[in-house]
Every structure is written in C-alpha cells, then in structure tokens.
Amino acid sequence: ELIKTNAITEEEAKNHPRKHVLTKAVRILKLLDISVKKMDNIYGYFLLCSDGLTNMLKDNEILDVITKNEFADVANELVLKANENGGVDNITVIYIKREE
Prior knowledge:
By secondary structure, the chain is of the alpha+beta class. The protein has helices at 10-13, 51-54, 59-68, 74-84; strands spanning 45-49, 93-97.
C-alpha cells in the first residue's frame, strides 16, 4: 500500500519496519473488499509466497532456483534455500503452472 501511494520506494519497502503488516485478510471481516487484477503471464508460471521466503532470499536467488529446477521441485527447493539462509519465519510457497 505504501508503494502504491508513492509514500516509499520498492527499495525502501525491503527494510521498512512495518513491511510485515497485513492490509487485507480472508475471514477477518464479514464484508471482504476483494481486489482483482488481471496480469499478463507470458511465462505460464505464477509464484505466490509469504515474507518468510522473501525475507530470506533476494529476488535473483528466487529466480535462480526457479530457472535451475524442474517445475515439481521449485516450491520445495525455495523452502529449503530459505531455511538454509536462516528460516526465521513461516515459509509459504505456491508455484503454479498454467495449463494450456
């Protein structure tokens, strides 16, 4: 949200003291404000992950795991790599392949 409103840059967000604060969650309120965004995905893959992963691995390290492993192994390899780097938080990774 802070990046969207130009309050901070993407670089500043990496170390922001409130970067872990949730702005939306499922089933907290009776009325849920859902945001839908259409994304062009030319590669056919989509990575959903928690900050437990992104706090332990840099973007280029995540990309390296994705490009060097078979699709079925990517999620497990990302979790293993994050744990090797300290794994101080819960790590959630979902790696999806779009079916043609």
